[in-house]
Write a structure and sequence with these properties.
Order of helices and strands: EEEEHEHEEEEEH
Structural class: alpha+beta
Number of helices: 3
Shape: globular
Number of domains: 1
Largest sheet: 6 strands, antiparallel
Number of strands: 10
């Protein structure tokens, strides 16, 4: 793994023996524990394919997430495949969170929340209650652990118990 990690870095993640996907470190979010923000791309490549950086970042974004990139790379033994200053428009990325996340001892997890807040990178949380309109498209904004990031890239799902809004 590369010792220095910086905004613009792109990493490759094997999703099985024959295929891989990519993610890019695009920002730091002071609003969410000053964690790193990544964008994970949906395009699947052959494991031995080496696309140009511009090809990778021009594919559709599967999701955005908060994490600590150096831990995702270290714990999953990922290699940095390149860097580009093209990180997209980070001002329009929207995250959602709720205080109904987490379980108190002896209680069942909350299945559905109507106490949501949303935010853009570096901005204050806006309490919205129920998620409506564009807010329903917001990505989950918790700081995910390295294994959950890789699982989501591979399967499309986190391994976390997080409330729904429907």
């Amino acid at each position: 793994m590369t010792k220095t990690i910086q905004i613009g870095d792109i990493f490759s993640i094997p999703i099985n023996e024959n295929e891989k996907k990519h993610f890019q470190y695009i920002a730091d979010d002071i609003s969410q524990l000053n964690s790193n923000v990544i964008r994970a791309f949906s395009k699947i490549y052959a494991i031995d394919e080496h696309p140009f950086m511009e090809e990778i970042i021009s594919s559709s974004v599967d999701f955005y997430a908060h994490c600590i990139v150096k831990y995702v790379a270290k714990f999953n033994q990922l290699e940095k495949v390149g860097n580009t200053l093209n990180i997209g428009n980070t001002k329009t990325i929207l995250f959602r969170g709720t205080n109904d996340y987490g379980v108190k001892q002896g209680e069942e997890p909350t299945k559905k929340s109507s106490r949501w807040y949303v935010w853009h990178i570096g901005e204050e949380f806006q309490r919205v209650g129920e998620l409506k309109g564009e807010n329903r498209k917001a990505d989950i904004g918790i700081v995910a652990n390295p294994y959950d990031i890789v699982k989501r890239i591979k399967t499309g799902e986190y391994n976390i118990n997080y409330p729904e809004f429907d």
